[in-house]
Amino acid sequence: MIxxxxxxxxxxxxxxxxxxxxxxxxxxxxxxxxxxVLAYQAxxxxxxxxxxxxxxxxxxxxxxxxxxxxxxxxxxxxxxxxKKSSQIAPEKNIREALIKLQREYVNQFLISHxxxxxxxxxxxxxxxxxxxxxxxxxxxxxxxxxxxxxQLIHLNYEVIYLDVLNDLICRDKRDKNRIEGPLKKAKxxxxxxxxxxxxxxxxxxxxxxxxxx
Length: 213
Ligand code: DC
Description:
By secondary structure, this protein is an alpha/beta fold. The chain is 60% helix and 12% strand. The chain contains 10 helices and 5 strands, in the order βαβαααααβαβααβα. The longest helix is centred in the middle third of the chain and has 21 residues, at 92-112. The chain is globular, with a radius of gyration of 16 Å.
């Protein structure tokens, strides 16, 4: 079983994916990690040109991604990496390379696990259009910006709410307006507004939907 969760930045996709995977005993894959790892490597290696970024994306493997994730730790969540990953994500060749790896990763897990919960922007629309369940999460941008500010402060980053808000506005624009794999709700996805409800209630809503089938 594949459960696809898409949505805007800081809408709670990651939390729902993690909570669903724990409740249903499924593996969780955060597809944003692939874009963040590539962005992190590009920053570290000083790679700026599109052609070199594409080359770097083609050289990535699941093994390398796991290794870089371990090395980078919480640096993958920095505002610099967030911005860079959002800037590189529209490139067709990069998306193709990273989607191929996401499918490979999920197919490996489907051999040994009952299923995978995967969160991102284009999972229900492009990466796994035949997923068993699809959810699309969103919330008012001010609520998302407040959440993201608190998360970053918790990680010891010095950030201010207005900068985070502006950053989210730009990321939403880039995610929704790009030609390749734009962020949009799949027709058969269940919409959940996470604005004024807790993580637990979001999980309960999703579980109720899954169990009703
Ligand atoms: O979910 P996230 O914030 O960790 O994602 C980081 C960036 O990667 C985000 O700006 C958009 C991009 N991304 C994407 O284009 N497609 C995905 N499936 C996941 C992430």
